[in-house]
Design brief:
139 residues; alpha+beta; Homing Intron 3 (I-Ppo) Encoded Endonuclease, Chain A; 7 strands
Length: 139
């Protein structure tokens, strides 16, 4: 690494201790004297950022939400629906993305189902209609 030397005096953002750190401002946005200070430092910006999960769903960091997971994450589409209906969703309630794009969380693209069975019946009915339309068009 050219130009990066561990001889620049820094101040730990967590505990205030003085230490010698790397002289590379592009790489290190935050400065901590140890791993334990870096891990325990508050992350104030996490709440404002949507995290894309491996399945494509967007989540928010909301550790105070009663239904957030162990990491404090809660699905953004559920937050949008909760705000729209003015109450918390139950664990059984399912949100469906109308256009199939799980990252499109506009309220116009979301449907609320009371349970997964209702959601499954909806998909079954949609497949039946699509099949019926396909056979009606074919000669």
């Amino acid at each position: 690494m050219t130009g990066a030397k561990k001889n620049t005096p820094k101040t730990c953002e967590k505990c205030g201790a003085e230490y010698l750190g790397w002289n590379n401002t592009k790489r290190n946005k935050h400065h901590y004297c140890s791993h334990s200070c870096a891990v325990s430092a508050p992350r104030t910006n996490r709440k404002n950022v949507a995290l894309r999960m491996s399945d494509g769903y967007l989540c928010r960091y909301l550790p105070e939400h009663p239904s957030s997971n162990i990491k404090g994450l809660y699905a953004e589409h559920r937050l949008v629906m909760e705000k729209h209906i003015g109450r918390l969703l139950t664990k059984k309630e399912v949100i469906h993305h109308i256009d199939g794009d799980v990252s499109n969380n506009s309220i116009d693209n979301l449907m609320l189902f009371a349970c997964n069975g209702d959601h499954t019946r909806y998909h079954k009915e949609q497949r039946r209609i699509a099949k019926q339309n396909a056979t009606a068009v074919s000669p």
